[in-house]
Design brief:
α1 packs parallel to α4. The strands form two sheets. The protein has a seven-stranded mixed sheet, sandwiched between helices. Strands 2-3 form a two-stranded antiparallel sheet. The longest helix has about 40 residues. It has two domains: about 90 residues, no CATH class; about 230 residues, BirA Bifunctional Protein, domain 2, CATH 3.30.930. β6 and β7 form a beta hairpin. By secondary structure, the chain is of the alpha+beta class. It has 13 helices and nine strands. Bound molecules: 3,4-dihydroxyphenylalanine. 3,4-dihydroxyphenylalanine binds next to β8 and β9.
């Protein structure tokens, strides 16, 4: 039996060497015939089993079968290897591997993101924390805690996408004022950027989804002058060193007094006239602001006789439109590479 195994090992060695040396299908076929063919070496060995003692025959048959199986597998592997090599050679002839490849597309930071990051940088430098919160909020955070009780007409203006009777996509970032004051005792200084949703028909100036940045500062003796200083600084950081801000009296339930905030039109620098950006007024509206309403402080267990604060909420699309002179808010969300590449 060991004689048989020895023979098979030796034969297997030669067979493998023949496969390795084979450079085409014909050589492989010759090896197959020489070893596994009708009068191949293995076949002759198998025939010689008949001369073994009867008890050894089944064992010898199995040994030979196993070897044949392994040799057939090796043959198949060698065929595949040759095919792949032929394929590679063919490709190399047809493809010029030295040809320069297509340059990879270079991504860039989205203009909304740029504005957002610049605002964050400005406020962080002044000790504000950046906080983010959920886009789905209970009406308590969106309205009640912000001094907008049920049935208050101001709810109408923030009307949004309701998920249940009391849960809605936030129409503004102001709920983050509430979440912050619930979790921290004064002083607090935060900004809260993020996506907001309103049931607005889409046009050049409106989108059902947009971004806001909320700001909140509460402490002792915080006053309107601080608000004006910070917003002026932010506008200068974003739009240029000569920016001013202007406050127009307005109304928000969660601030008193309340104001709309404008900044110098960066396109015409307050000259107005035929300016397309500001419509000739010389000013661009950024959003709302005001001194936090005592009812809001009270709801948060902040003593309104000790603490005061200011807040603002600005639209980031609006700021990006003004900063980059963009004609249509929809461009921000269309993901057109040609548009976005301008900000690379
Ligand atoms: N939340 C308001 C809106 O979306 C904007 C706003 C106004 C935010 C006054 C404020 C604020 O924090 O004090 O229209």
């Amino acid at each position: 039996m060991s004689e048989l195994t020895g023979k098979l090992d030796e034969l297997r060695g030669r067979f493998d060497a023949a496969l390795t040396a084979a450079s085409d299908d014909r050589a492989l076929e010759e090896a197959r015939i020489a070893y596994l063919g009708r009068s191949g070496e293995v076949t002759l060995l198998r025939r010689s089993i008949g001369q073994l003692p009867a008890g050894e025959r089944p064992g010898a048959g199995k040994i030979i079968n196993d070897v044949v199986e392994a040799m057939e597998a090796a043959l198949e592997e060698a065929r595949t290897r040759l095919q792949l090599r032929a394929f590679d050679e063919d490709l190399a002839q047809r493809i010029d591997v030295t040809f320069p490849s297509v340059a990879p597309m270079r991504g860039s930071i989205h203009p909304i993101r740029r504005v957002l990051e610049d605002i964050c940088t400005f406020f962080e430098r002044h000790g504000f924390a950046v906080v983010v919160g959920p886009e789905i909020e209970p009406d308590y955070y969106n309205f009640d805690a912000l001094n907008i009780p049920p049935e208050h007409p101001a709810r109408e203006g923030f009307d949004s996408f309701y998920i249940t009777d009391t849960l809605l996509l936030r129409p503004h970032t102001s709920p983050m004022q509430v979440r912050t004051m619930q979790q921290h005792r004064p002083p607090v200084a935060i900004i809260a950027p993020g996506r907001c949703y309103r049931r607005d028909a889409v046009d050049a100036r409106h989108s059902f989804m947009f971004h806001q940045c909320e700001g909140l500062l509460v402490g002792e003796q915080v006053h309107f002058g601080h608000l004006k200083g910070m917003l002026t600084g932010m506008c200068r950081a974003l739009f240029g060193p000569d920016q001013s801000v202007r406050f127009r009296p307005s109304y928000f339930p969660f601030t008193e007094p309340s104001a709309e905030v404008d900044t110098t039109c960066p396109t015409c620098h307050n000259i107005g006239g035929p300016c397309r950006m500001c419509g000739g007024s010389g000013w661009i509206e950024l959003g709302g602001a005001g001194m936090v309403h005592p009812n809001v402080l009270h709801e948060m267990n902040y003593d309104p006789d000790v603490y005061s604060g200011w807040a603002f909420g600005f639209g980031l699309e609006r700021m990006a439109i003004v900063r980059y002179d963009i004609d249509d808010i929809r461009r921000f969300f269309e993901n057109d590479p040609d548009f976005l590449a301008q900000f690379a």
